[in-house]
Fold this sequence. Notes:
Shape: rod-shaped
Oligomer: single chain
Helix content: 25-40%
Amino acid sequence: MAYGIDNFSDGDTTVVRWERKKKDLPLILISCCMPYDSEAEPPPEKFRQAIRMWRHDVLIGCDAHAHHTLWGSSNVNQRGESLVNFLSSTNLCVCNRSCDSPFVVRNRSEVLDLTLATNLGTLMASNWMVSEKSSPLDHCWIRSRITLQLEMRAPFKNSQRANWDGYSAALESEMARRVQELIRRGKSIDSAVECLSAVMREAFEANCPISHPAKCGRPP
Length: 220
């Protein structure tokens, strides 16, 4: 379920909270246009407030109107330096992976559109590219594959699912046979203890199925 967050949204910035499974942190989606004629240095205040509020699983698409070689611009301007200074104080990383120019007009092309995401190991942006598909605007389509890393949990034995009748029968059968063999060979008490432990472990393994944990953090 997704819903907008009005407190952090205005005419230039839209923030959406995507609720996932109960145990997962929400995914925060931000779309932002940073006006080139704004007197304030980028990013805008609503954008800054949203990043201060959420530091996990944030994905941002923005028209930065800022130049910096960090994301492939042909030069660096004051707006670009301001944005880079802000990014360096956060855990956001630039996902742009090529120098293809999303902004194209008749006599000029430039990298102005950025994809940003938190770099905490849970949110991964890959296959970033400027699409060759035509756009009605002077900004090209940007495509990227967004996935959330899954928490890999190992299969386990759940004793509540064990067949305890089968366990008892296997234990009784193997115990009688192996203990008699130990007595016949005159083995020590330590050997008998090791044998008993092995018999109990094997009986449990044979009569308790493997349980697979429910998947958590499934990608949207």
